[in-house]
Amino acid sequence: MILGNKWKLKKGFSILLLIGLIFLVGCQTGKDTVQKKSTTSETTMTSLSKEEAIEKTVTPTLFIHGYKGTVNSFKGMLQRLEEQDNGKKELTLYVDANGNVRAEGELSKQATNPMVQVIFEDNENNEWNQTDWIRACLLYLQITYQVDQVNIVGHSMGGVSGLRYLVTYGQDTSLPKVDKFVALGAPFNDFVDDSGQSVTDELTNGPAVVSSRYQDYQTLVGNLPTTTQVLLIAGQISETDVSDGTVPVNSALAVYALIKQHGNEITEQIIQGTNASHSMLHENKEVDQAVNQFLWKTDG
Questions:
Q1: What does pTM read for this prediction?
Q2: What Pfam families does UniProt report for this protein, alphabetically (predicted)?
């Protein structure tokens, strides 16, 4: 009888032990499940935060090369921006010497931050003709895709011609308006010797020595829409060489005071180091970041 009771107790204890083990396994499984769900949630939130930081719109951004530029001029930057999912290259516009526009690709009309590369087939022509060619590109986008707003990014002479377009056709309401304008190493004051003036003084008062090109901007700045936001980027390759090796910092920033006094929102940035040389500005990741931030990052 006593033996029987002991056997029953052992059996009961074994059952309780088995139940306990099952309970512990179940808890651990549940814990793992909760942890996996938590990890997934964090990843999603990170992804959402990244997406929210970039504002995707249907507004096309035109990228315009400099003197003697080719399809390779902005090729690397466009690829990097696309790889980072900041924008999507959808269209290339080739403009011949007569201002005729030929297109490769098409705009999707989707909110992809579409990027449009502009190629001047006569890539050694003057800024006045390039101004009209930019107008031809905007007219093409308006007629073909009903585009009513664009951004413009110009390197070197592309920036010079981009600003000349703005002060020439900026008040023409029949054309798409330019929301944002970026100039990379653009010689707005040509190559005059203004080494005696500090950058700080120029940003406040404008250039002390002016070129005929700058004088044109002074005369025409009234046509620049005050709603157009502007970013000027200059390169400085060393402490002793206050230029990008081609364009002086003072020239790249020469129109800052003029445009600010006109009432536009304007920002300037000096990129420093050997990778800030004139031909490397559109290959510089710091420039990529500045362009991306200015064009597409939300304030939040």
A1: 0.83
A2: DUF915
Per-residue pLDDT of the chain (300 residues; tens, 9 = 90+): 444 444 444 445 444 444 454 444 444 444 444 333 333 223 222 233 444 488 999 999 999 999 999 999 999 999 999 999 999 999 999 999 999 999 999 999 999 999 999 999 999 999 999 999 999 999 999 999 999 999 999 999 999 999 999 999 999 999 999 999 999 999 999 999 888 899 999 999 999 999 999 999 999 999 999 999 999 999 999 999 999 999 999 999 999 999 999 999 999 999 999 999 999 999 999 999 999 999 999 764
Cβ neighbourhood burial of 141 (10 Å; 0-12, 13-18, 19+): buried
CATH number for the region 59-294 comes to: 3.40.50.1820
